[in-house]
């Protein structure tokens, strides 16, 4: 059994859905196909949640209309009947006429997860016309998580049982990425861009032969082609290198995807849905990756430096207080560095979270911060590549390990 994963970009229109069916038909007799919400639907559903909770009827109705017409247009272009998808769309419209219950994050998961449900209902109905044996599965019944809404933590033992019982190893099976359910029956999601991770969860539980994630790029490149004109395809990557690249922010693979596959030695292919005959990248148990320098850019970074008010050193007690505050504020640290009397961190400058965190930190520390920065990570760096990326940049902080260099810079251009 192989796992195929198609993201939002691959099913953004009717041509994309047809292309998905072509790829599945040509490449797999037995597969589990994990599909995301279509195009930018998840963003639109986030707008719906916000408008619903804030009673902003105008935005709510306008966005519902956009989401509904968008899917309707795809169904019209594909032709045929889509009763399940239409029912889900009507369910969404009905849901937001009722008062919201539960926390914001709980409401978010109940609504945002519907993007994947509708998408797979459309894809399954269409694929069934082309490949008659295709079956649709509700991943909410299969992926068991705790009730951490928007970042559900997987209960691997229960999920393994549920998936193994439900999904046969023959034929074409279709299900959703990103969604799960807590033990008390509430829908959860696995965090934005979590569909790659879902593919890995299914692969792990089914002892799959391989996972293929179909993307709009030729494979894993040595830099994001949105930022770099000249990129190189990395044909083979070790799990370790793939984990490092994803962890530091190469968004082509969700960082949680790789570890479960590594544990079972399941190869991960990253291939282009625009050129399905090309080999792309294979990630597996290789001795060594090619040591081509790879670049990861994160923009809109803020460097926060903390100095204890009481002239104490940056030692265990201060560090545990600092980390506690970051965890509570939900702010992830991209880089950290300390001296005897100061502690510096670089984080994404999230306007919903960082200002509140700074206020908290100011209770115990003198706080300096610099915003509008870039964090550049180079895997397999050498001085020449560092010098090249530093052209026209002011270097504020640098950190090097054996294979990875991280540079916090201000763009002077
Ligand atoms: P999906 O449709 O599956 O959600 P994503 O948009 O999350 O796909 O991932 C594909 C995108 O990842 C590409 O369009 C590309 O801009 C970006 N990307 C970032 N880093 C890399 C990299 N190192 N190699 C290839 N693509 C990258
Ligand atoms: N649809 C979800 C998102 O946009 C999950 C995914 O696409 O991976 O975040
Ligand atoms: Mg994605």
Architecture overview:
With about 425 residues, this protein is α/β, with parallel strands linked by helices. It folds into two domains: about 1-215, Carbamate kinase; about 295-410, VC0802-like, CATH 3.30.2130. It has helices spanning about 15-25, 40-55, 55-80, 85-95, 105-110, 115-130, 155-165, 195-205, 240-245, 260-265, 315-330, 355-360, 385-390, and strands at about 1-5, 30-35, 135, 145, 170-175, 180, 185-190, 210-215, 235-240, 270, 280-285, 295-310, 335-340, 345-350, 365-380, 395-400, 405-410. The strands form three sheets. An eight-stranded mixed sheet has the order 3-5-2-1-8-10-11-9, sandwiched between helices. Strands 13-14-12-15-17-16 form a six-stranded antiparallel sheet. The chain is globular and about 70 Å long. About 40% of the residues are buried. The model has no long low-confidence stretch (mean pLDDT about 95). The structure holds adenosine-5'-diphosphate, aspartic acid (ASP) and magnesium ion. Aspartic acid binds near residues 7, 8, 36 and 192.
């Amino acid at each position: 059994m192989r796992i195929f994963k198609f993201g939002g970009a691959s099913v953004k229109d009717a041509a994309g859905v047809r292309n998905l069916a072509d790829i599945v038909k040509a490449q797999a007799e037995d597969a589990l196909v994990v599909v995301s919400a279509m195009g930018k639907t998840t963003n639109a559903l986030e707008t719906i949640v916000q408008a619903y909770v804030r009673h902003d009827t105008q935005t709510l109705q306008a966005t519902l209309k956009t989401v509904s017409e968008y899917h309707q247009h795809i169904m019209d272009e594909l032709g045929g009947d889509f009763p399940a998808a239409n029912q889900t769309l009507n369910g969404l419209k009905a849901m937001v006429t009722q008062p919201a219950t539960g926390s914001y994050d709980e409401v978010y998961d109940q609504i945002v997860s519907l993007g994947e449900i509708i998408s797979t209902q459309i894809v399954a109905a269409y694929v069934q016309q082309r490949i008659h044996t295709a079956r649709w599965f509700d991943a909410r019944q299969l992926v068991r998580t705790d009730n951490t809404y928007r970042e559900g933590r997987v209960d691997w033992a229960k999920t393994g049982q549920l998936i193994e019982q439900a999904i046969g190893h023959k034929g074409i099976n279709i299900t959703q990425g990103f969604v799960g359910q807590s033990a008390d029956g509430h829908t959860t999601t696995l965090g934005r861009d979590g569909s790659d991770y879902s593919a890995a969860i299914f692969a792990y539980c089914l002892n799959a032969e391989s996972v293929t994630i179909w993307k709009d790029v030729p494979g894993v490149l040595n830099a994001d082609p949105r930022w770099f004109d000249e990129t190189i395809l990395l044909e083979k990557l070790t799990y370790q290198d793939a984990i490092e690249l994803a962890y530091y922010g190469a968004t082509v693979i969700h960082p949680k995807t790789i570890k479960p596959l590594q544990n079972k030695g399941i190869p991960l292919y990253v291939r282009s849905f625009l050129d399905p005959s090309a080999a792309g990248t294979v990630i597996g148990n290789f001795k060594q990756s090619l040591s081509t320098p790879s670049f990861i850019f994160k923009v809109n970074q803020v460097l926060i430096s903390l100095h204890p008010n009481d002239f104490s050193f940056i030692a265990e007690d201060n560090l545990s207080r600092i980390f506690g505050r970051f965890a509570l504020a939900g702010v992830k640290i991209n880089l950290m560095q300390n001296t005897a009397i100061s502690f510096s961190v670089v984080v994404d400058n999230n306007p919903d979270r960082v200002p509140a965190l700074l206020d908290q930190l100011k209770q115990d520390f003198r706080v300096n911060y610099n915003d509008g920065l870039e964090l550049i990570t180079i895997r397999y760096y050498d001085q020449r590549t560092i010098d090249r990326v530093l052209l026209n940049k002011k270097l504020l902080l640098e950190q090097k390990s054996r294979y990875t260099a991280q540079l916090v810079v201000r763009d002077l251009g």
